[in-house]
Amino acid sequence: MSDKRPLADTTELELDWRGRAPRQPEVPSSAALEPLSEVEVPSGAGKGLPGDPRHMSIELRQSVQGMMETPALRMRQMREGLEIIFGAQTRNRYEVCDDTGRVALYVEEEARGFGAMLRRTFSPFYKARMECMTLGGIVALVVERPWSILLTKADILAWDGRLMARIQQRFTLLGRHLDIVTPGGAVIATVKGPLLRPWTFRIFQNDVEVAVVRKRWSGFLQESFSAADTFTLDFQPQCTDFRLRQLVLAVALLIDLTYFENNSHRAALGPGLDLFDALMFWKK
User: Fold this and answer.
1) Domain coordinates of the chain in residue numbers?
2) pLDDT tens digit string along 223-280?
3) Which of 41, 42, 55, 218 lies 20 to 30 A from 116 at CA?
4) What are phi and psi of 162, to 5 degrees?
5) Where is this region: Disordered (predicted)?
6) Residue 132 exposed, middle or buried by CB count within 10 Å (0-12, 13-18, 19+)
């Protein structure tokens, strides 16, 4: 007698598994879902108009929230030791604060190093790229100024790298004149600097003043021996478009690079009118 067990009837076995979906592993009941706060939210890059805050990331929008609502900004240039002692033009750095004194943005020139300092100090073909960043290091705005012979210009890039607008200096015999234009060339706003007020720049949209950029007096020693400038950006109540406010900040940066970069040429019309404008500012 054989001890082998009889084979099972193979007709009852199901050998064709091609029509079945693979079995999914069971999720333990104790497994926790990923917290919503840690889920990465798409930033919306490339959506809507360039610079539109509705498509910014949550972190970036929260960082610039104060700039959207404040009636004024203060932009202060941060000096470095070589600039104070030797007068060398080191890379430009600024801090931008709201009306409560809270820092909203840091602005820093991209070019670094000794070679960049020499080009900035001596070269007539100096190009500048200014990055406006939040405290967390997120780029919110970029101002690119190529070198030019007579009339300066700058490209304004939104936080996602798209071209938002351009600033173009216009020729004028009296005062100063810049236009803020779309990438297609249509004028968005006009910047006018009165002849006898070389520290004051008024920004108009449809012939209505929407903002004023003023350079403030920083003291005799600082004005004489360094290029550390302080500006105030005052917004009119009707200036509620955050895209326009970003352009006003870009205008302030270009004004400093164009008219107040070198100590020997700090005013467009001479040091006498500088003092006159400072007195008029404090009188106001």
Assistant:
1) 53-283
2) 444 456 899 999 999 999 999 999 999 999 999 989 887 533 444 444 444 444 445 4
3) 218
4) -80, 150
5) 1-54
6) buried
- How far apart, in whole angstroms, are the C-alpha atoms of residue 268 and residue 256? 11
Tokens standing for residue 66: 């104060």
Q: Determine the Cα–Cα distance for residues 92 and 107; give it in Å rounded to an integer.
A: 8
Rounded mean pLDDT, 23-43: 41
- Return the residue matching tokens 């030019």: 148
Q: What is the rounded distance in angstroms from the CA atom of residue 232 to the CA atom of residue 95?
A: 12
CB 90 within 8 A of CB 82: yes
The domain 53-283 belongs to what CATH superfamily? Answer: LURP1-related (2.40.160.200)
Query: Distance between CA atoms of 248 and 210, rounded to whole angstroms?
Result: 9
**Buried b / exposed e along 182-212 (16+ C-beta atoms within 10 A):** eeeeeebbbbbbeeebbbbbbbebeeeebbb
The one-letter amino acid code at 145 reads R
Give the whole-angstrom CA distance, residue 33 versus residue 280.
63
What pTM does this model have?
A: 0.72
Residue pLDDT, tens place only, 95-131 = 999 999 999 999 998 755 445 545 555 455 668 899 9
- What does the alpha-carbon distance between residue 64 and residue 103 come to, in Å, rounded to a whole number? 10
Buried-exposed string 38-48: b where 16+ CB fall within 10 A, e elsewhere: eeeeebeeeee
Round to whole Å and give the CA distance between 194 and 268: 11
